[in-house]
Amino acid sequence: MTDGKPYSQACENNKQVILEKIATVFNEPGILLEIGTGTGQHAVHFAQHLPHLQWQPSDHPSNAQLCMPWLEDANLPNINTPLPLDVSAPDWRLPPINGVFSANTAHIMSWPEVEAMFRGVAAILNAGEAFCLYGPFNYGGQFTSPSNRQFDTHLKQQNPEMGIRDMDDLKRTGDAIGLVLESDFEMPANNRLLVWRRC
């Protein structure tokens, strides 16, 4: 916690490099859904620097209020009230959405939840709209660094259903529902920013 607010060092470390990428993707006015808002640090930083976007925070119903101290402190006009969102729900019951962003969620969800997230995103986006997914990913079943391998082991010790996801599985899932991988950006600390486009 910092100043009574929840705090993520990872968010603080990566918020600027992520902003630089998503600013080029989400460059038109619209409503952007964040899946897994967490502490709210990303929401505040991105909304401050992308005033053309109306930011819609969301998180698992058990966690949806965690971001409120950051949001209330920032008091930005382009951040909506956070919504509870269970990605496994058959109908997300959201207002119209023009883009989706999610950071460090795929490896803490179970694989069925990841698939459900992709299906839900595909259902709410129109053709040409984007889904940006940030985090560590494997390629061809291989870890990209020893630290990612260690992180994966740590995750599985907490919950066997967690783990770093493989790009082959993600692309197969996306292709089947009309989310096509447009860009795969290398990011610091062995992370990637994946840009999926609704076709």
From TrEMBL:
It comes from the Bacteria. InterPro entries: DUF938, SAM-dependent_MTases_sf. Pfam families: DUF938. This is DUF938 domain-containing protein.
